[in-house]
Amino acid sequence: MWGVLLKxxxxxxxxxxxxxxxxxxxxxxxxxxxxxxRFGQHAVPEKIELEMERMGWNKPVWQQALAFGNxxxxxxxxxxxxxxxxxxxxxxxxxxxxxxxxxxxxxLIAVPLGIFxxxxxxxxxxxxxxxxSMAVALLGVSVPVFFLAICLIxxxxxxxxxxxxxxxxPDFHTGFYFFESLVTGNFRMAVVCGRHLALPALALSTxxxxxxxxxxxxxxxxxxxxxxLRTARAKGAGILRVIARHAMPNASLSVLNIVGFQLGVLLSxxxxxxxxxxxxxxxxxxxxxxxxxxxxxxxxxxxxTAGIFVVLNLTLDILFLLLDPRLRxxxxx
Length: 333
Prior knowledge:
This protein is mainly alpha-helical. It contains 15 helices and no strands. Helix 5 crosses helix 13 (about 280-290), helix 8 (about 175-185) crosses helix 9 (about 185-225) and helix 13 (about 280-290) packs antiparallel against helix 14 (about 295-325).
């Protein structure tokens, strides 16, 4: 098993190195000069040269690559092009924590509801609970997130939007305002922060909820048709016992896989949801970077997104090996 884990770790590191190279080179071969794009075609040439020198874009590509690699090894993502003096690591950390809290809140809604809806649909297949559940799941995938977000804002005008907490509220020790308030017992602040979090999390949860419910239904149908479950039912085991003790554990790998994938998608930046609610997360940050031609911000966000997927895939591989002995035996044989 340790050999398999080491192999997966090497693959993850290699994937991340390739991602760094691809992102770095992709922004260097673009035909648009970031300084020209920001200052316009009528900018003073001397000013453009000074800015290019400050950014390091007047050096050969290999020298820029070495300097960038050295920055990454020291945990430095560089300085914003559009806002000189602003370290990207600081702003990106704040944006990532906001997206992470929003994603966790959305998944706390989507995962239990999705598993419940999918299980109900599988148990009462081809009946009205199945039809209603799958219709709701199809509606959740079909309705655009930005449209649903606008509808929620109009339906609940008293709910705050645009900030994670009221202005003037003391800062938190972590970037998780709502969850930190719960853990520390500050329930009044948890209610305040929860009101800011509720609508974005609800809007963001619809697509993963629909996807998880459909995957759960398909996985449960395969398991429920197995011979050993029919044998358990014939011996007098109740449906709830069969679902909890036999069906759900065997269907968990498929559900876990899709949950991990949806988590990565949401963490990489829920751009539409964050933009509609003006949530200061990763998606909003990268959109602002594109608007300002801030290539350093776009580069850093792309690398963070790649890192999120690499870490999640590695984590899922480890969980699969721990949960399913057949995978360990098959890969080691």
